[in-house]
Amino acid sequence: AGAPVRLTDHPRRTVWEKGLLVAATAPVLSLTGRAVAALDCPPLAPAVDALLAEGVTVATARGIDVDGDGIRATIADLATSHGDHEVSMAQDVARGRRTEVDELNGAIVAYGAENGVATPANRTVAALIRGLAGGDDGREHEGERPTRADGRTPGGADRGRPPCVSVGETGGLR
Fold first, then answer.
1. Residue environment code for 64-91, b if the CB has 16+ CB neighbours within 10 A, otherwise e
2. pLDDT in tens, 132-170
3. Mean of the pLDDT values across residues 51-70?
4. 18 belongs to the catalytic site
5. How wide is the angle at C-alpha 39 spanned by C-alphas 34 and 41, nearest 5°?
6. Cα-atom radius of gyration of the chain, to the nearest Å?
7. pLDDT tens, 75-103?
C-alpha cells in the first residue's frame, strides 16, 4: 500500500506517544469545530499543550519515557501537512456517536489518579466531549445529533474560517 513502516524496540512508548498526540489534539478540534491547521493558533495551542503536558506527566509517573518535544513537533507538522483534515472524534461528535475520549483522555485521568497526578485539563475535555456526544454515560447515542445554540451541529471543521482568528476579528469582547 506504500505506507511507511517504522520498527521500534519500545512499542509501549510508541503507543503512548500516539495516544498522547490524539488526546491533546482531537478533543480541542472537536470542541471548537476547527480543522487541524488551527492547532498552531492561539488560543488553541496553549490548550493542546496543557493536555499534552498532563499526559506526559502521567506517562512519566507510570515509568514510560515519552518524547513530549517530539509529539509537539509532530503536532506542528500536522497543522501544516494535514491542515484541512477533520479528526475522527469531531466526525463522531457530529453524528452523535460514541467517541474514543474515554480511552484517551479518560485513561489519562484514571492513570493520573492512580499515580497522584492532577489532570484537570484532560478531565474537563473528556466531560465536554461526552456531553457533546450525547450524554455523560459514555455510550453511543446514534441519531441524537446535538445542536449548538446557533442551530449548527457541533464537531466538524468549519472550513469557512481562516486557521487563526483573533477575538477582535470575531466581534467578541473588546
1. bebebeebbebbeebbeeeeeebbebbe
2. 876 544 444 333 444 444 454 444 444 445 555 544 454
3. 98
4. yes
5. 95
6. 16
7. 999 999 998 899 999 999 988 889 999 99
CA distances from 23 to 13, 28, 121, 151, 158 (A): 15, 9, 11, 27, 21
Closest listed residue to residue 114, CA positions, set 48, 49, 61: 61
Give every CB contact of residue 68 below 8 A, 6+ residues apart in sequence. 20, 52, 53, 56
Cα(4)–Cα(126) distance, integer angstroms? 32
Residue type, 28: V
Q: Considering 10, 18, 148, 159, which one is annotated as catalytic?
A: 18
Predicted TM-score of the model (pTM): 0.78
Which range of 31-40, 117-126, 145-154, 158-167 scores highest in mean pLDDT? It is 117-126
**Distance (Å, whole) CA 107 – CA 140:** 18
Task: State residue 86 phi and psi, 5-degree precision.
Answer: -105, 120
Cis status, amide bond into 46, omega within 30 of 0: no
